[in-house]
Amino acid sequence: MPADAEPYKIIANSAILRDSHKDVSKPYENNSSFNGFKNNFTTTNVIDHVFITKQWQASKWGILTDTYFGKFPSDHFPVVAELTIGR
């Protein structure tokens, strides 16, 4: 869901969870996290998220845009976050 959607806002602004994307100063987001099984990348909308609790800190965040011989394993690209605990 996009960051401007009400369900996202409820989760991201809760006292329990936050979006790990906000911890990272230079996230790797060269295109949208949704691909629709096509390589027509015309948006940069992030609709997939890694939510974390207060004891976690994200140092890296990115959308992995690999394909396999030009084919997509899913209609969404994986989102990865490198996390440490003990904040």
Strand order of the largest sheet: 1-2
Give start-end ranges of low-pLDDT stretches: none
Structural class: mainly beta
The total strand number stands at 4
Major β-sheet, in short?
2 strands, antiparallel
Head-to-tail CA distance between termini: 27 Å
Notes on the protein architecture:
The structure is a single chain. By secondary structure, this protein is mainly beta. Helices cover 8% and strands 22% of the residues. The chain contains one helix and four strands. The strands form two sheets. A two-stranded antiparallel sheet has the order 1-2. Strands 3-4 form a two-stranded antiparallel sheet. It is globular and about 40 Å long. It starts with 5 loop residues before the first helix and ends with a strand. The mean pLDDT is 91.
Short account of what is shown:
With 87 residues, the chain is mainly β. It has one helix at 6-12; strands at residues 18-19, 51-52, 56-63, 79-85. The longest helix has 7 residues, at 6-12.
Topology:
Layout: H1 6-12, E1 18-19, E2 51-52, E3 56-63, E4 79-85
Antiparallel strand pairs: 1-2, 3-4
Key words describing this protein structure:
87 residues; mainly beta; two-stranded antiparallel ribbon; 1 helix; 8% helix; globular; Endonuclease/exonuclease/phosphatase domain-containing protein; Endo/exonu/phosph_ase_sf
